[in-house]
Amino acid sequence: MMTDDIEKVLLTEKQLAAKIEELGKQISDDYRDRDSDLLCISVLKGSVVFFSDLIREMDIHTQIDFMVVSSYGAGTSTSGVVKIVKDLDIPLEGRDVLIIEDILDSGKTLSYLKGILMGRGARSIRICTLLDKPARREADIHADYVGFEVPDEFVVGFGLDYAERYRNLPYIGVLKSSVYS
Ligand code: IMP
Ligand code: MG
Questions:
Q1: Ligand 1 atom 15: the closest Cα is on which residue?
Q2: What CATH architecture applies to the domain 13-152?
Q3: Cα–Cα distance measured from residue 158 to residue 75, given in angstroms and rounded to the nearest whole number
Q4: What are the boundaries of each domain within the chain?
Q5: pLDDT, tens digit, for every residue of 89-110?
Q6: pTM (2 decimals)?
Q7: Measured between alpha carbons, how far is 141 from 159 in angstroms, rounded to an integer?
Q8: Cα–ligand 2 centroid distance for 35 (angstroms)
């Protein structure tokens, strides 16, 4: 079974749901009086589960768009190379943008992305990440909204993968090292 590969559960479904509800409320309050809809950007694929839960906890008008970037391949440490595989459809000019990510690790991916998107004339860009691994930070970047800080362990589930697996785990867990060593 898939769950046999999990060493321990780090964040339960219940903890995740409660935090996402809280984040949704906070984001809604922060953007409620803007004159344009909040543009929520999902950085695929890792953010897909968090993104779809989070936007449903917002009670403001939003628009959504998707971006695919690749940084990791099948390994567990960053390559430093970030490539746009699928770009946004909606123009950013004058928009309030919220980038929604699964995890802020070295920060290289988001730092690169934020730079590109800022160059497209957005009015504001904030970052919301479900997980933050501050111990691993290399780029000068922080998230405006953070779900949970996690220790320096490779985690999977709730959208996060190892070699494209485990995205469908309903919780966040630590993978047994035997799976990748
Ligand atoms: P960064 O550029 O090092 O911040 O890496 C960001 C991306 O690496 C994330 O969006 C994830 O796809 C992936 N990543 C980083 N740490 C983990 C982890 O512990 N588990 C699964 N994916 C991870
Ligand atoms: Mg990934």
A1: 105
A2: 3-Layer(aba) Sandwich (3.40)
A3: 18
A4: 13-152
A5: 999 999 999 999 999 999 988 9
A6: 0.93
A7: 22
A8: 34
Which residues are CB-contacts of 164 (< 8 A; sequence separation ≥ 6)? 74
Closest CA to 165 of 153, 152, 175: 175
Mean of the per-residue pLDDT values of the chain: 93
Task: Tell the residue nearest (CA) to atom 20 of ligand 1.
Answer: 155
Would you state the pLDDT for residue 152?
92
pLDDT 10s digits, 141-156: 999 999 999 999 999 9
Ligand 1 lined by 42 (C-beta under 6 Å): no
* Residues in contact with 77: Cβ distance below 8 Å, sequence separation at least 6, in sequence order: none
Question: How far apart are the CA of 129 and the centre of ligand 2, in A?
Answer: 13
Q: How far apart are CA 121 and CA 92, in angstroms?
A: 6
Q: Any catalytic annotation for residue 105?
A: yes
Distance 23 CA to ligand 1 centre (A): 21
The one-letter amino acid at 80 = G
Tell me if residue 66 falls in helix, strand or coil. Answer: strand
* Catalytic choice (53, 96, 102, 105): 105
Given a cut of 60, whether residue 76 has pLDDT beyond it is no
